[in-house]
Fold this sequence. Notes:
It is built from twelve helices and three strands; from the N terminus they run H-H-H-E-H-H-E-E-H-H-H-H-H-H-H. It has helices at 3-6, 28-31, 38-50, 62-69, 73-85, 103-127, 130-145, 151-169, 172-181, 188-193, 196-214, 218-237, and strands at residues 59-60, 89-92, 95-98. Helix 11 (196-214) runs antiparallel to helix 12 (218-237). The two termini are 33 Å apart.
Amino acid sequence: MDHAATSPFARGHNLLSRHANDLADLPLGETARPARTSHDVYDRLRLAIVTGEIRPNAPLIEADLAGALNVSRTPIRESLQRLSADGLIVPRKRGWAVREYSREEIQESYEVRAALEGYAAFLAAARGTDAELAAIAAVQAERDRAASPGREFRVRTNRAFHDGIIAAARNARLTEAIFRAGQFYFNARIAAMTTEEDFRSNQADHGRIVRALLARDASAAEQAMRAHILHTFTVFQRLGPL
């Protein structure tokens, strides 16, 4: 199964494709297929929020969103209600705005992710096929070979690495829980603010995870993934608002 085409993380990856204070100006007609369902609209908006394409406190106006995504207001309204239930947006006088999380809330989110993705790594080591684990290792090798990895490359391969492990865990409920906990993705803006030393440190973390997966050492894989995600948070702490 092509996890990149089916996982909650991957749905709509090329949709809301750049920062926008005015959603009516988003260039969706050039880069995205039309939204078809309320679920599709929800996926696109959620991804845009958690990847930082739509920034904290940015306004979300129904009419602007409907025009940007070429849908009626009904799926927009339904999607905004779901995003509110997710805790990603808050009501304002004129519609909604993206919620700005406190540093403490972000830390809590990372701690939950560490527990969930750590267990996904445990299951991947135990359940993943040889081909799946080899594919994860291949992503890591691609990153190792990159002489000067750019922002898009770092974001794409980081997501492929984590998604591959989650897919290999073969637990749909766990995948969904990780999706819900993943409020703050590694994105192009964060990639631009991290240093080459940060990238090398990230690579060292990934290397430990890969070695544990290939050795089928589930406990070591879990510990390495948990340590990696918590380490990632310590890097983000110095970067300013996420």
